[in-house]
Amino acid sequence: MDLRIQSSTHPLRPLTSTSDTAARLTKPLQAAEAEGHGFGVALENALRAVSAAQNHQSHLQREVQLENPAVSLEETMVAMQKAQIGFQATLHVRNRLVQAYTDVMNMQV
After folding, report:
1. Does any domain span residue 1?
2. Domain that holds residue 64
3. Distance between CA 29 and CA 13 in Å, rounded?
4. Residue 26 contacts by C-beta under 8 Å, 6 or more apart in sequence?
């Protein structure tokens, strides 16, 4: 394994324009989201999961109110707590995102 530092004798290459740099930086992000990875995809999946939990708990709640013997009160209460915790976590993420956006917009350049 060669650990020597190579000296550079060639001149520095010219700086690229901002649009070239922006395109070069966003290209991996677009590729990651196209493959199903990335923050946007993860956030969308999390929101879908919270929505599904809320729909499930409302369905179980309705079945308990209609006195369906196949649905237990304990199962309904657990589903309600899961939906509530998921919703609270979503609110916290939203608040953090809004706060981060506000902080970035208030930065002086």
Report:
1. no
2. 38-105
3. 25
4. none
b/e code 16-33 from CB counts within 10 Å (16+ = b)? eeeeeeeeeeeeeeeeee
Q: What residue has token string 């520095």?
A: 12
pTM for the structure as a whole = 0.63
Q: How many domains does the chain have?
A: 1
Residue labelled with tokens 């079945």: 63
Q: How many CB atoms lie within 10 A of CB 15?
A: 8
Which amino acid, one-letter code, is at 36?
A: G
73: Cβ contacts below 8 Å, ≥ 6 apart = 64
Residue 89 sits at φ, ψ, to 5 deg, of -65, -40
Question: Does any domain span residue 69?
Answer: yes
| Domain-located, residue 15 | no
pLDDT digits 0-9 by tens, 4-53: 555 555 555 555 555 666 666 667 666 666 677 788 899 999 999 999 99
How many Å separate Cα 52 from the centre of its chain? 16
